[in-house]
Amino acid sequence: MAAIIETRHLTHIYNAGMPDATTALEDVSFAVEEGDFVGIIGSTGSGKSTLITHFNGILKPTSGQVLLDGKDIWAKGQDIRKVRFAVGLVFQYPEYQLFEETIYKDIAFGPKNMGLSEEEIDRRVRRAAAFTGLPEEYLERSPFELSGGQKRRVAIAGVLAMEPRVLVLDEPAAGLDPEGRDMILSQVKRYHKETGTTVLLVSHSMEDIAKYADKVLVMDQKKIAMYARVDKVFARADELLALGLSVPQVTKIFLKLRQMGLDLPQDVYTVPWAVKTILEAKARKEAKGEETTC
Amino acid sequence: MNEMIAAKDVRFRYTPENPYAVDGASMTIRKGEFVAVLGANGCGKSTLAKHFNAILLPESGTVTVEGMDTRDESHLYDIRQTVGMVFQNPDNQIVATVVEEDVAFALENLGVPPAEIRARIDEAMQMSGIYKHREKAPHKLSGGQKQRVAIAGVIAMRPDCLVLDEATAMLDPRGREKVMETIHHLNKDFGITVVSITHYMEEAAQADRVLVMSEGHVVMEGTPKEVFSQTEKVRSLRLDVPQAAELRDELVKAGLNLPEGIITEDECAAALYELLK
Questions:
Q1: In this complex, is the C-beta atom of A247 within 8 Å of any C-beta atom belonging to chain B?
Q2: B195 CA to chain A: closest CA distance, Å?
Q3: Where are the domains of chain A?
Q4: Where does the record place it (chain B) (predicted)?
């Protein structure tokens, strides 16, 4: 499969050339394939947000390139507006960006700016609202009458309605309770599955990344520390912990059990898998016990 | 007197047309305690927290802070001095253009002498891990760093009681750990009472006592172990349970024999080791 988004030697320095110049990204090269669901993790200040704001041209690289479909988005003759329609960015706490009189108008704002027909806008608004679980009868209400979690769904619907090929979400579940978090993330997952949209999900929660993403990009101190499939990354739990990242509690339990000398796999990161692994280990032990008694 | 905060049958609604956000909540926070208040969104936990330093007043029932009734306006100043609040969104709490000025803001308003302000804010900034950013502009900090600035501002006031309303919701795991460490340090070494409103079960697991709210009142209470080992009930209240407790329950369902009350990874690893060694 071809890379939809790619960075080559991407470096970003805030206030370059000024006394307070700060390097936020240093020589970052990686590629996301079309249809991937990539989780992006890293502690505060690791460069995650700076990285994702390059994908639709909000930030311009200090050096290096950002490519969409293999083309440098800042090359001469490239229309940056087209890049912004192709890559939809949902910021942290997007509910603060709602401004329209009705939920319908707020979701329609992006598609309208794309110059689409009324019918197409209407189709997209209703589809996006349905995906985010907003009932039809809400559409004529003011977004400011909604709860925080519902407002956030309106904001996400506003980006989905642009039908971007790449959907980038920066901590979409921050501040929500477990139920709200699972609802939003499973809606994103369903959207990914049903539409084949490439998704990049920034999260501090390893549990969430383990549950929803296929690949993980780990950022550390302005650079890429790891980029691989979820199981491969979680197999390096001790390294993740050393980077100041948390790993799921079951992964820590398995890490401890291995340190205690038990022969167990390294890449356990969900509870059902942990249950299966323990039951198998127990069965193995019993089989062995019978052998020795015989 | 042993009570820091006492809420009795508190009822509150934002407008008469709205349902009660807090509906018959009673709880006592003892001096020196570290209490976590857990609950799903909309359970009334933040609304109740705003009663603890008289931002909101009960429609019926009473809230007292060190015996002072929050409805008695003559106590307002003392109550606000006693209970410091930290909120979820750092951007709504930062007022100054330089970090250390922001941390000093409340002390200046309280008329603390400049030399003492210097000492107290330096200490507060070190405790919150933002000392090296003290001369920066807050808008140049990350969300997590900004929240630690807000926490430093409250810590600098040395209140007797700290109420944190989902104050770590925006921090990364290391930042959250640091803030929790700071708060535990304040609790243990300075005897500051802590009420931490959260939906992070990991944070509640470190508290002395956990209160769980649902539909405006307290529905579970006990030590973290007592509360979190009831995995089904906690889940039915739309909250997470520790994966250690979940794993233990699933293995018991599958027919294995494991002790009750497992909530930490150490306890879980020890029990599994016994089983598999």
A1: no
A2: 18
A3: 3-245, 248-294
A4: Cell membrane
